[in-house]
Amino acid sequence: MTDVLRAEGLGKEYRRRWALRDCTLSVPAGKVVGLVGPNGAGKSTLLNLAVGLLRPSEGRIEVLGDRPGGSPERLGRVGYVAQDTPTYARLSIADHLRLGARLNPSWDAGLAAERVSRLGLDPSRRAGSLSGGQRAQLALTVGVAKRPELLVLDEPVASLDPLARREFLQDLMGTVPEHGLSVILSSHLVSDVERTCDHLVVLVDSRVRIAGDIDDLLATHVRMTGSRRDPLTLPRSQTVVTARHTERQTTLVVRSEEQVLDPWWTVTPLTLEDLVLAYMAPTDEVDTAPRPALEVQR
User: Fold this and answer.
1) Hey, which of 91, 115, 170, 269 would disulfide with 141, CB 3.0 to 4.6 Å?
2) CA–CA distance from 111 to each of 14, 76, 131, 264 (Å)?
3) DSSP-H helix ranges across 36-189
4) Is 156:196 a contact under the CB 8 Å cutoff?
5) Cα separation of 150 and 153, whole Å?
6) Where in the numbering of this chain does the ABC transporter domain appear (predicted)?
7) Confidence grade of residue 83 (pLDDT, cut at 50, 70, 90)
8) CA 264, CA 267: separation in Å to the nearest integer?
9) Strand 150-154 vs strand 78-81: parallel, antiparallel, or unpaired?
10) Which residues, at least 6 apart from 163, have a Cβ–Cβ distance to it below 8 Å?
């Protein structure tokens, strides 16, 4: 299997309002994928469709080569931690693990118990008495102990303090290689994506603006600064992502498979945050002149 998720023309409508529309995406297997984009881009809707909590209004989506949700076997292949890291306040940690064992055919009780012990969680404590970071770790434990092939995380650390967020992400980084998971992590914090992910998807207005391995994307994007100049004078091999002009200066973010050697420009590398912000830029900052189509990396 080369992709854990494939979407073609995917859309979801709520009472005549489209939360996601015309989304086409491939997510490769064996990667930790960072899904980023502005609020309202459709990230949570896409993930809810992926785990079978919603059904598409149009288009199609496949997860692990099959339709999301349905049978217990399909549900067991995907782990999911939602944005509010849902737990049952009146149930103890031990109750959560027993519930997980009843609902998941491939439940690994040893793994769940080991994680609870390593994290210093008292199995008798009710979830409602745990801190936000502890609840997030409990939700992750339930998700991982299913022994899924794909783990979907929808901004699971959004409400955590910096220390709890770091601990959660460090634990996730140790869990992924140990259990051979593919992961899709939605986050509005680029620093979290940079720390944990090796593949990036930028979703804007329901559409994938760019996708690919982070190292490859950073190697093929640069910032070019020089005296004011028309971007149309650039070689066809250089695709302008954003263009900003002052009276005397032009600053471009450019994608190029070849090294930029033009002495007219000062060329500097981009950080991951620079790259993400460039693809999230408003359309009035983007050079819309005809150029080679931007292909989604697979």
Assistant:
1) 115
2) 39, 16, 22, 58
3) 43-50, 72-76, 93-103, 109-118, 132-145, 162-179
4) no
5) 10
6) 5-230
7) confident
8) 9
9) parallel
10) 133
How many whole angstroms separate alpha carbon 152 and alpha carbon 54?
A: 15
> Is residue 149 within 8 Å of residue 64, measured between CB atoms?
yes
| Residue 217 scores a pLDDT above 60 | yes
Q: Starting from the edge strand earliest in sequence, which strands make up the sheet with 17-28, in order?
A: 17-28, 3-14, 58-63
The pair of structure tokens assigned to 190 is 């680029």
What pLDDT, on the 0 to 100 scale, is given for residue 84? 77
Residue 56 confidence (pLDDT) above 70: yes
295: in domain = no
User: What pLDDT was estimated at residue 292?
Assistant: 40
Q: What is the pLDDT of residues 112-162, one digit of tens each?
A: 999 999 889 999 999 999 988 899 889 989 988 999 999 999 988 777 788
153 belongs to a structural domain: yes
H helix and E strand count, the chain: 9, 13
State which residues form the domain around 19: 3-214
C-alpha distance from residue 286 to each of 206, 223, 247 (Å): 18, 14, 18
Q: Six-digit token pair at 178? A: 């140990």
- How far does Cα 205 stand from its chain's mean position? 15
**Do 206 and 224 belong together in one domain?**
no
Q: If you average pLDDT over residues 16-39, what whole number do you get? A: 92
> pTM (2 decimals)?
0.86
Q: For 62-66, 89-93, 109-113, 285-289, which range has the lowest pLDDT when averaged over its residues?
A: 285-289
Taking the chain, what is the end-to-end CA distance rounded to the nearest angstrom? 13
Q: Mark whether 102 and 244 lie in a shared domain.
A: no
**Amino acid in the structure at residue 179:** H
